[in-house]
Amino acid sequence: MPINIAIDGPAGAGKSTAAKKLAENFGYIYVDTGAMYRAMALYFLRRGIDGADEAAVAAACGDVEISLDYKDGIQQIFLNGENVTGQIRAEEVGRMASLTSAYGPVRKKLVELQRALAGRRDVVMDGRDIGTAVLPDATLKVYLTAGSRVRAERRFKELEEKGVSCSLEEIEKDIIDRDYRDMHRELSPLCQAEDAILLDSSDMTLEEVVRELEELVEDAGTRGCCGC
Ligand code: DC
């Protein structure tokens, strides 16, 4: 049985950076499920589909094929065969992903792909519903969170480093809105699975988060019987 590590939590908690590092350290593949929702969202944006129009989004789902590949260990995401990895990080794509990920046909398509990947390979998979819905029998489930202000400050710093001018208040508001949508939707809302371990990274460095996760993975018995 492949080893499946599920990491869920709100936007900006540090899931992807920590999960990526963890996967690298253990030789597992890292699956960023948010990127899949973002790639679908990019398709809807390009087609001018209104994210609030559930019927239009559902109808367009049949025209979208999402797939993954790895280049030098880094996940590449393909939208109908086009590598869109570099185009899915814009704020408007994140907002559209948050809106359209609430719809059943979008989730169905991507959850199937996520389960197929985790059934074949040892994975660290991060998202919103991995422990609660996608991989209910995961080897280890972690709910990684942090306060909204801390998350906004991290995002602010990231954008500043890229030379993008932005307001901390606006970023925090966006984060709070997104949390609300992700936590209050009907289908697979973001919440901590009953058997998930809670990790609050508000006062932790990335290195501390990764160290803690490594210990949790080791404690979950993922090493061979001789510790190899
Ligand atoms: O993690 P992210 O910011 O890249 O995710 C973008 C959006 O996708 C997020 O607001 C909610 C949605 N999402 C989801 O519904 N389920 C997942 N497993 C991952 C992301």
Describe this structure in words.
The chain is built from 9 helices and 8 strands. With 228 residues, it is α/β, with parallel strands linked by helices. The chain has 2 domains: 128 residues, Rossmann fold (3-Layer(aba) Sandwich); 77 residues, P-loop containing nucleotide triphosphate hydrolases (Rossmann fold, 3-Layer(aba) Sandwich), CATH 3.40.50. Strands 2-6-1-7-8 form a 5-stranded parallel sheet, sandwiched between helices. A 3-stranded antiparallel sheet has the order 3-4-5, with helices on one face. Strand 4 and strand 5 form a beta hairpin. Helix 1 packs across helix 9 and helix 2 packs across helix 4. The longest helix has 17 residues.
Explain briefly what this protein structure is.
This protein has 228 residues and is α/β, with parallel strands linked by helices.
Question: What would the keywords be for this entry?
Answer:
Rossmann fold, alpha/beta, 8 strands, binds 2'-deoxycytidine-5'-monophosphate, 228 residues, 3-stranded antiparallel sheet
Topology record:
Elements: E1 4-8, H1 15-26, E2 29-32, H2 33-46, H3 54-61, E3 66-71, E4 74-79, E5 82-83, H4 91-100, H5 104-120, E6 123-127, H6 130-134, E7 140-145, H7 148-161, H8 168-184, E8 197-200, H9 206-219
Parallel strand pairs: 1-6, 1-7, 2-6, 7-8
Antiparallel strand pairs: 3-4, 4-5
Helix pairs in contact: 1-9, 2-4, 2-5, 7-8
The chain binds 2'-deoxycytidine-5'-monophosphate (DC).
2'-deoxycytidine-5'-monophosphate is lined by residues 11, 33-34, 37-38, 94, 97-98, 101, 127-130, 178, 182.
